[in-house]
Amino acid sequence: MIYTYDKQKLRYNKVSLRTKTFTLLISLLVIWLISTAMSKTVTETFYVTGETKMLVLEEHNEFSEEKLDAYLKEINIKFPDIVKAQATLETGYFKSEIFLVNHNLFGMKVAKLRPTTALGENRGHAYYDNWKQSVIDYAFYQSSYLRQAKTEEEYLGYLKISYAEDPNYINKLKKLIK
C-alpha cells in the first residue's frame, strides 16, 4: 500500500493503484532531497586571487534544545511540550548513548508496520543520520497511532498504555513539562 501524508491533519491517505508508481518515485525523490538538505548545506566560496572555486559542505544539524523546539513546531508535531519532555526523558537530558550515537531522541525501535526514517537498528534501537530524522520518524509514529488524540490527557493516556515501560513515565513527563 502507498499512502500520502497530510501534514495539516497528521495522517495518511491511501493512494489509488494508478498513481502508485508515480507517487513512489516522487516520494523517494522527496525523501532523498529532504534527507540531503537536512544533513548538509552547500556553501560556495570564491578566492579573489585565483581561478579556484571551492565547494564546502557544512554540517548544520548540530542539536540544541532551541532547535528541537523550533523543529517540533515547524513540522506541526501535536503537543510539542509533551514530545519535548519525552525527548528529554528518553535521552537522559540529551546525554544517552542512544541519542549521541543513534541520533534517536525518543528511544524508538525500528518500525515494522508504518513508514519510518530509521536506517536500521543499533544497540536495540533505531538509528538515524541526524536528530531531525528522529523527529520525523516520531511524526510518522504520531500520525499512525495518535492522530485520534484531541487532548493532552488522551495523548498521555495512550503513551501510558502503549509507549512507556516505566509505570511512572507519565508523572515524569508532567514534571518535565512544568
The number of distinct helices, counting runs of at least 4 residues, comes to 7
Could you describe the largest sheet, including whether it forms a barrel? 2 strands, antiparallel
Alpha-carbon Rg, integer:
19 Å
Can you tell me the CATH topology of the largest domain?
Lysozyme
Cα distance spanning the termini: 41 Å
Order of helices and strands: EEHEEHHHEEHHH
Question: How many domain units?
Answer: 2
Helix content: 40-55%
User: How many E strands?
Assistant: 6
What is the CATH-assigned architecture of the largest domain?
Answer: Orthogonal Bundle
The outline comes out as: globular
Question: What is the overall pLDDT average?
Answer: 81
Strand order of the largest sheet: 1-2
Kindly name the structural category.
alpha+beta
CATH class membership of the largest domain: Mainly Alpha
Percent of residues in beta strands:
5-15%
Poorly predicted segments = 39-48, 52-58
Q: What are the main properties of this structure?
A:
single chain, 178 residues, alpha+beta, Lysozyme, two-stranded antiparallel sheet, 7 helices, 6 strands, globular
Describe the structure.
The protein has 178 residues and is α+β, with helices and mostly antiparallel strands. It folds into two domains: 3-58, no CATH class; 65-177, Orthogonal Bundle (Lysozyme). 46% of the residues lie in helices and 15% in strands. The protein contains seven helices and six strands; from the N terminus they run ββαββαααββααα. The chain has helices at residues 20-39, 65-74, 80-90, 97-102, 131-145, 152-162, 169-177; strands at residues 3-6, 11-14, 41-46, 53-58, 120-122, 125-127. It has a two-stranded antiparallel ribbon. It has a two-stranded antiparallel sheet with strand order 3-4. α2 (65-74) packs across α3 (80-90) and α3 packs across α7. The longest helix has 20 residues, at 20-39. It starts with a strand and ends with a helix.
